[in-house]
Amino acid sequence: MIIAIDGPAASGKGTIARHLAQAYGLPHLDTGLLYRAVAKAVLDAGHSPDDAGDAVAAAAGLDPKKFDETALKTQKVTEAASVVAAIPQVREALMNYQRAFATQPSGAVLDGRDIGTVIAPGADVKLFIVASPQVRARRRVLELQARGEHVDEQEILADLRRRDERDSRRSAAPLVQAPDAHLLDTTHLAIDAAFRAAVAIVEAVRTGRKR
Ligand code: C5P
User: Fold this and answer.
1) Which domain covers residue 174, as residue numbers?
2) How far is the CA of 121 from the centre of ligand 1 (A)?
3) What ligand 1 atom has the least distance to the C-alpha of 115?
4) Could you identify the atom of ligand 1 that is nearest to the CA of residue 83?
């Protein structure tokens, strides 16, 4: 079974993806890490994330087994990731790895922005996870505070909106709900309720019921 999960930042998609992978015994790929790793490589080399040549070279030379997730979650890398992700050749360079991950014999769970539309359009189950920008900003603030970072909620909200806009308006694989994706709004759901709702969708699809 291939489960494709898309949605904006802090919608809950990453946590839902991890929990679904665990529940169904499937390998999981957080595809945002790939774009983050490209962004970090470009920044570390002292280059600008909107320099397509540098970003494409970084994407081509990426080793997805060597990710330091903590270093990839900083605000600077987050912002730069959505810039490199808008470069079509960067997306192309990361495509084969993601498709191979999706089509491995065991099945897989992938989460990102274009999984149901571009990477795994034939996925068995597609989820599109959303939540209000205010709730997403609050979640991000709590997450960053738990890591000991001092953050301004209004700034976080502005960052999220800017990133949403960039991810949704770009011409290469924009963030958009696939026509056959199931919408799950987690605005008023705690994580366990959101997970249960996701499982209900997966089970409904698996048992062939129409939703
Ligand atoms: O999911 P995450 O917030 O870690 O993703 C970081 C950035 O990577 C996103 O803002 C988006 O621009 C990009 N991304 C993408 N396609 C994906 C996954 C992430 O464009 N499949």
Assistant:
1) 2-210
2) 17
3) 21
4) 12
| HSE-up (13 A, CA, CB side) for residue 56 | 7
- Asked whether the predicted pLDDT for residue 211 surpasses 70, the reply is no
Q: What is the CATH number of the domain that holds 201?
A: 3.40.50.300
Which pair of structure tokens corresponds to residue 77?
């890398």
| pLDDT tens track for 161-188 | 999 999 999 999 999 999 999 999 999 9
**What is the per-residue pLDDT for 65?**
83
Ligand 1: residue whose CA is nearest its atom 8: 32
pTM, two decimals, is 0.95
Contact (Cβ atoms closer than 8 angstroms) between residue 91 and residue 171: no
Beta strand extents in 56-144 (DSSP E only)? 108-112, 125-130
Number of domains in the chain: 1
**Pocket residues for ligand 1 (CB within 6 Å)?**
9, 31-32, 35-36, 81-82, 85, 112-114, 163, 167
What is the CB neighbour count within 10 angstroms for residue 118? 19
Q: How far apart are the first and last CA of the chain?
A: 18
